[in-house]
Each structure stands twice: as structure tokens, then as C-alpha cells.
Amino acid sequence: MSTTYVDWEFAKTTGRTLVAAGPSVSADEAAAEVGAIREAARRAHGPVAETSRLQTPDDAPDALIVDRPTWIAMNADSMGAMLGPAFEQIMTKRGTAAAPNGIAASIGGKVTGAEAGALLAFMSSKVLGQYDLAPGGTPALLLVAPNLLQVQRELGVDPEDFRAWVCMHEETHRVQFTAVPWLRDHMITEARQLATDMAPDQERVQELTKRITEKLPELFSSGSGGITDLVTTPEQRAKLAELTAVMSLLEGHADVVMDDVGPAHIPTVAEIRAKFTERRKGAGAVDKVLRRLLGLEAKMRQYKDGAAFVRGVQERVGVEGFNAVWTSPETLPKPLEITDPAAWVTRVHG
């Protein structure tokens, strides 16, 4: 049923066709970089566990070091597995009469597949690493080798320290999901439900298209959350805010851990953080437009807001007190608490 909406194999083909070339390296240089990243990922286990006071299970598989096309393929599979059940629920709600015929479904699936592939191609050159939740499959920690090398060269920072710094961040994401067993299923369930709720009824499609056309300039105003601001209801935005609060927690926590680990294990951590933060501000015009349209500017705020929340909580109740956040879905921060850590402490700790 899900292929009615998105042809994910076509998305992979489109992504591979459009993906930008990575940095120029010889085969020997590429092999050496992959080996160095793999070793940095292994060395991140202990320091992240010690700093976060969370433990990745000993039998967790090693990180996967991937190129851009592989990242595209794996994320297309994960997106298909994530959204497939949501699409089926949408069709059930609309009834079989709303289902397109075979030819229309094939054409529509390739159109949306091409769109998804183009988005994945763009993102594949931006992502340094990712913990792939892999709904229905095996979760994996991914590190995108050409992107680590490219950013390290652009920043002009120590290669070994930069690899270690990125791996600390991504290892923190892995420990979040492996040390907190309920978190993965919770995130998958919430994302699927949100996708189902946000799917417009057929009669609203034309209305939304008109609204997007008229309001497109607003996407470029300060504080815009991307195109979703224009196509969601207040109730949907409230649900989206709840999921965003959790994403802010996860990203902010990873940033805090990577920087707290840094001084003891990464001599140039302060220089890397300063240059990396400045790089986020210095994107080109086209890149900034795409980031704003896709809501990625809002994602950048997640790092800042989430890190401030983690720091604020830890200052009040320490790391162990902060780790109460992982107790259950009810102890995750609410949208307003992300910018008011004292409110979370009062609610959870009394």
C-alpha cells in the first residue's frame, strides 16, 4: 500500500543520481579515513558512558562507516518502514474509493519518490552521523565518512580530534536509545501517529496548495518552522511541539556530553566547537533558503535550546537527577519546559 504514495526504490535511484560528489581522495586515503573513524567510534564508548552515566550494551554492533549513496539507501528504507503503516491508516480512514488505480499509483509513487530522493540527496551531504532507528529492522549508528572529512578540511581543525568529537556526539545518541529500551518504540510510534494526523483530507489539498503559494514569503521570516507551519492545524502543531521538545532533548544532551567529554580526551575541543558553531551561521544563500524551507533552521535551535535545558537541569539536580528524564514518556520534557528547566525539575523531582 505504501508504494501508492512513495516509490522508495525510485527515491534511492534519484538520490544516487543527484548526490553531490564528496571530497577528492585516493583509495588509500579513503581507506585510512574509514579506519580512523571506526577507531574513533570505538574509543567513544567509555568516555560517553562515564560522562552520561548511561551504558551502551556490550553486544551493541560497531558503528557503520558509510558513503553518501549508502546513507541515502538506508534512510529511504527507514523512511519507508516508518511511514508505511501511517499511509495504510490514512487509506483506511479515507476508504478504498479514494485509492488511485494502478497506473495513477505508479506515476504518483515515482513523483513522490523523486521528491524524497532529491531531499535525501541534499541531506546526505550535510549529515555527519546518525542513529538510524530502522523501524522494523536493526538500529545502527551511522557515520558518513566523506562528510566528516569535508567538514574537517573546511574548518581546518585537527583531524583526530574532530573525528573523536563527532563520534562522542553520535555515540551519545546510541546510548540514549540502547540504555533506554522504551525510547525507540516511543519515538517511532509518535512519529507515525503524527504523520497520520498531519495527512490532509482530499478536499484540503487544493486549499493548502493555495495557502502555501500565498504565504511562501513567511517561510523566510525569523522564527519560521518551515513549510509545516503553513499546512498544520493548531492541534497538529501542539503535537509536533511535543515531538520537537524530545528531539531538542536528544540533540542538546548529545552536544553537552560531547563537549563535557572533550577536555579530557580532545585537546582542541574548544577550537572545534567555536569553528563549528560559526560554520552553522555561514551557510551560502541557496543552502540557507533550503534550510528555511525544510525547517532545518528550527532544528539548529534544537541544539541550543536542548543544551540549555540539560545544563539547567544538571545545575539543579546533577547528572543523576537529570537522568530521571529517561524514566518513562511522562518524564520527558514538555514543550514549555525545554526553555524552563526549573519547571521540569519541579514537576519531576518536586
UniProtKB/TrEMBL annotation:
It holds the Pfam family Zincin_2. NCBIfam families: DUF2342_F420 (TIGR03883), putative hydrolase (TIGR03624). Transmembrane segments: none annotated. It comes from the Bacteria. This is Coenzyme F420 biosynthesis-associated protein. InterPro entries: CHP03883_F420-assoc (IPR022454), Zinicin_2 (IPR018766), Zinicin_2_N (IPR042271).
